[in-house]
Structure formats: structure tokens, C-alpha cells
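[Meeting: bench + compute handoff]

Bench side (C.D.) handed over the final construct sequence. Compute side (W.E.) agreed to return the predicted structure before the next meeting so the bench team could plan truncations. Sequence as handed over:
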Amino acid sequence: MRTIKFRAWDKENNKFRSDDFLMSLDGEILDPKTFPFTIRKDVELMQFTGLKDKNGKEIYEGDIIDYDDNDNMLTDSGIYAVGWNDEVAGFGMMGIDLRDENMGISGYGTDDYCHHVVDYVLPKSKIIGNIYENKDLLK
């Protein structure tokens, strides 16, 4: 069975939170400590991809990974952000390869996802940050 879990980013205090949250059927984040439940607009949830990096660290959407594998014909080595793509209903790698500013993801544009290589690439990658605490890695 697939593990489904989330981590939460507090947008107001700029830190990860360990509080418990509920999610409504329409995707709103609710605070279970209040009644009636209040909607939390200050929290961003990131889902676990179900994969771990090469060091055994769990990979969540919003993580920034460094992928360096010259043997892979599927995608270029580079720095990518992990995200969710509604069109393919799956996790993907997005962003620009910071080692070559003229290159997008695997030769695609910088807004494209390279979802077909995620299961292969993420376990061979190293998490180097996340999109909230390390925005400078994506510039």
C-alpha cells in the first residue's frame, strides 16, 4: 500500500509546522483544534512522493533536487524542483537546469514536467533544499 502523508509550510512564520491538519473534500485545509473548523489559508501542504533520495531522505513536492547521473539517457543532470502535474496526475520535475541556463528540463521548456523519468531519477538524486527556504537555488 502506498504511504500518503504531507508536510506543512507556515506562510506567515516561514517555517515548517508539525501541527495536525484536516483537509476537506474540496481541498481546503482545516484546523482541527477549532469548532467549527476554521479554514487555514496560512498553510501550504506538500505531499510525499512515495520516493526517497539516494541518501534515504523522503522526497516531497516542493523539494529541490540535484540530479547528477551521466549514464541516464532519459534526462539531463541538473537542479530541479519536484511538483505535482494535474494533466498527468503525477509528480514531476520542473524548473531550469542551473548548470546550463540555456537548457530547460530535459530539453523541454522550463514550464514542462518530465514525469516519465521521476521514478528513475528521484531515487538517484539528492535533496538540496526546498522552494520555500531555498528559493535562491532556482534563480
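W.E. noted at the follow-up: Helices lie at 118-121. C.D. will use this when planning the next construct.
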